[in-house]
Structures are given as C-alpha cells and as structure tokens.
Amino acid sequence: MRQQPAMQTDAERTWQQVVHTDRIRALSSTDSADVRVQPVDATCWRVVDAAAAWGDPEMLIGFVERTADGFDCTLMAALHERQHTSSLQAAHEYFEHQCGGRRCAAHDAGDR
C-alpha cells in the first residue's frame, strides 16, 4: 500500500521558502573563484565556498554524487533540481557558473 505524503503546514511552507531565499542570496554573494569540491567519500563530494567561515551554513553550496554514467549535481538553492555532468571537472564548472548572481538573475526571470 502506498502512503500519501503528509500535507505541509503553513509554517513548514514558510520555513522552506525562507531557507530557499537564504540559499539563493548566499549563492549570489559567492565568488566563483572560491568554489571548492571536497571529497566526502568515494562517490560523493561537497561543494563549498572557501571564503565563508568554517561552520557557516552559507559555506555549503551543494553536493556531487557519482552515478553509473557520470555525476549528479545538487545545488542547495534548488534541492529539487539535479544537473547531470560527464565529469567531476564539469560538475565543478557547473557550480562555478551558478555563483555570483548569475543563477539569481535566471531564477528571478523565470518567476515572472
């Protein structure tokens, strides 16, 4: 039997929107030259802003996971989206491209 997802409360939806907005804002202030890909284990890497203070939640930009045919990128500012790349270097370049307001401008244009 398949369970139905629990309905979100207004407070949960508001919290998710605040977190999303904060992540977009943090991403827009990240210099692409500060993007670092750090190994977590053999199949997963975290992507961080090296200029942020250690332990600062804004330090975490996203994650990269190895798949059978490449690498999946998850951006903290858009957890429901995945970008597939063919190499770890291409994944790094994807995250660099998302920083510095470029994603914010594209995101805001899509909301209109």
Chain-wise SSE layout:
Layout: H1 10-28, E1 35-41, E2 44-49, E3 60-67, E4 70-75, E5 83-85, H2 88-98, H3 102-111
Antiparallel strand pairs: 1-2, 2-3, 3-4, 4-5
Please give a structural write-up.
- By secondary structure, this protein is α+β, with helices and mostly antiparallel strands.
- The protein is 36% helix and 27% strand.
- The protein contains three helices and five strands; from the N terminus they run αβββββαα.
- It has helices spanning 10-28, 88-98, 102-111; strands at 35-41, 44-49, 60-67, 70-75, 83-85.
- The chain has a five-stranded antiparallel sheet.
- Strand 1 (35-41) and strand 2 (44-49) form a beta hairpin.
- The longest helix is centred in the first third of the chain and has 19 residues, at 10-28.
The averaged pLDDT comes out at 77
Unreliable runs, pLDDT <50, ≥5 residues?
A: 103-112
Strand order of the largest sheet: 1-2-3-4-5
The class by helix and strand makeup works out as alpha+beta
Extended strand count: 5
Q: DSSP strand (E) fraction?
A: 25-35%
The Cα radius of gyration reads: 15 Å
Short précis:
The protein has helices at 10-28, 88-98, 102-111, and strands spanning 35-41, 44-49, 60-67, 70-75, 83-85. It has 112 residues and is an alpha+beta fold.
